[in-house]
Amino acid sequence: MKINLYLIVMISFKAFSQKMTYRIYLVKITLLAIGLLLCFQMAFAKTDDFRFAEKVNIALRRTAHHLLVLNADSTTTIQPVQQKDPNTFSIRVENLLTYEKLPELLQQSLQMQHIERGYNVAVLRCDSPIIQLGYNFLDLNQEGGVPCQNRAQEGGCYTLQISFVPENSAAVGGFSSWWMLPFGSALAGLGFMAWTRSRQKGLAKTTSESTKPTLTPGLKFGNSSLDLPGQILQCGSTIHQLTYREAKLLSLFVRNPNQVLERDFILKSVWEDEGIIVGRSVDVFVSRLRKMLSNDATIKIAAVHGVGYKMEVLL
């Protein structure tokens, strides 16, 4: 009894550990997939930010070049483009005398790079943070045109600054995140299916284990025990669930150890309530009991030729 309880506890603990290990494994896989997904998204965002900055750099340098050419300046070095933040860029332009040409040149340069985001333009003196001139890209299509476009402008060193409108949060780094929805849904669905399947298996296993017979004190014989009300046979460490007739026949042998029981007596004691008695039933059921008791060397159901059967108990 103690050994049996120990085995049941150990089996239950092992099943619980396996189930928890499997669920933890599923959680780890899901978290890993989400982590990889976020890493890919960040990588795409950084790559696209880099490409956007590169396009703006080329567009601003082209604009500065043509402004200098319009001023008949082919010798002044074009300064590097400065990036203040992901959306703000500036370039220093010497001898800016043609402000009226700036909006058209800048728009052309941006279109050549396929940059379609909205922007604000500010023109500052190199030695002062005060904005001297400025406009919004929407002014290009207004009836009045760009503010101050036709006003006289002093020559000198100016900083041309362009600030782009931040992208919509629905798209990260220029890479639309709509693909996250089906991918994330599919991942969640797979995780839920795996969890449900694991849970169903766990429930089925628990149910199966819970329906296994548990032995209560009963008839002892040899190294075996019979729980007649529960129709349970324990042979060593093995438990068998008996049918009604098997339990009744075994009980008859256990109550009459080492005694020869005639075939007619067995039939009458075990099968008399059926009305129809088949002689071969005894042989079939004895064969079943022999297989169940095969692990108990102290028990033997012997055939007595022409008479019946005898259960020999060595202990």
Question: Can you give a write-up of this model?
Answer:
It contains 6 helices and 14 strands. It is of the alpha+beta class and 315 residues long. It folds into 2 domains: 1-212, no CATH class; 219-313, Orthogonal Bundle (Arc Repressor Mutant, subunit A), CATH 1.10.10.10. A 5-stranded antiparallel β-sheet has the order 1-2-5-3-4, covered by helices on one side. Strands 8-9-10-11 form a 4-stranded antiparallel β-sheet, with helices on one face. It starts with a helix and ends with a strand. Residues 169-176 and 206-216 have low confidence and may be disordered.
Give a summary of the structure in a few sentences.
This protein is α+β, with helices and mostly antiparallel strands and 315 residues long. It has helices at 2-70, 102-112, 180-210, 244-255, 263-271, 280-292, and strands spanning 82-85, 88-93, 119-125, 131-136, 158-164, 171-172, 175-176, 219-221, 224-227, 232-235, 238-241, 260-262, 299-304, 308-313. The strands form 4 sheets. A 5-stranded antiparallel sheet has the order 1-2-5-3-4, covered by helices on one side. Strands 8-9-10-11 form a 4-stranded antiparallel sheet, with helices on one face. A 3-stranded antiparallel sheet has the order 12-14-13.
Number of discrete domains? 2
For the residues shown, what is the average pLDDT? Answer: 77
How many extended strands? Answer: 14
Q: Quick one: biggest sheet?
A: 5 strands, antiparallel
How far is the N terminus from the C terminus?
19 Å
Question: Helical content, roughly?
Answer: 40-55%
Radius of gyration, in Å, reads 46 Å
H/E element order: HEEHEEEEEHEEEEHEHHEE
Structural class: alpha+beta
